[in-house]
């Protein structure tokens, strides 16, 4: 179990990005590199664990961490790399809560806010975004993970200067 002060020395927590049924996600920054991150707080009472058997190694893992890494194809040999899944950077056990630190691109917005800002997305752009989401979901499925909470809030859209061309990534595995 790590002390909160250790996390504070590594990461600067900023504004709230969003809240789910059991977690809060904050924007943040890795102090040593000024890298933008997303910092997810989950109450320990809401954390689920899974017994993982990966190439003969059996261990208990936080279910959300396991699913995130497995969906991205970073856990077991034979998995398919899925660059659309946000990268996991750190996991901290604070006794009363689990903190999960993930990559965050500063020029992204969740799908709901993206749609709210634009009011209208041209059909051709919607096709591109949907194709990227479907391809990401198919790779997750090939890796043995089915995303049960695909919704606008769980999709990140990378914005360009003109806000017309975009790439999308899934935010997290959103297990309920």
TrEMBL record:
This is Serine/threonine-protein kinase 1. It is found in: Host cytoplasm. ATP binds at residue 40. It holds the Pfam family Pkinase. Keywords: ATP-binding, Host cytoplasm, Kinase, Nucleotide-binding, Serine/threonine-protein kinase, Transferase. Residues 11-176 form the Protein kinase domain. GO terms for molecular function: ATP binding; protein serine/threonine kinase activity. Its EC number is 2.7.11.1. InterPro entries: Kinase-like_dom_sf, PIM_Ser/Thr_kinase, Prot_kinase_dom, Protein_kinase_ATP_BS, Ser/Thr_kinase_AS. The keyword Coiled coil does not apply. It catalyses: L-threonyl-[protein] + ATP = O-phospho-L-threonyl-[protein] + ADP + H(+); L-seryl-[protein] + ATP = O-phospho-L-seryl-[protein] + ADP + H(+). It comes from Gouania willdenowi (Blunt-snouted clingfish). GO terms for cellular component: cytoplasm.
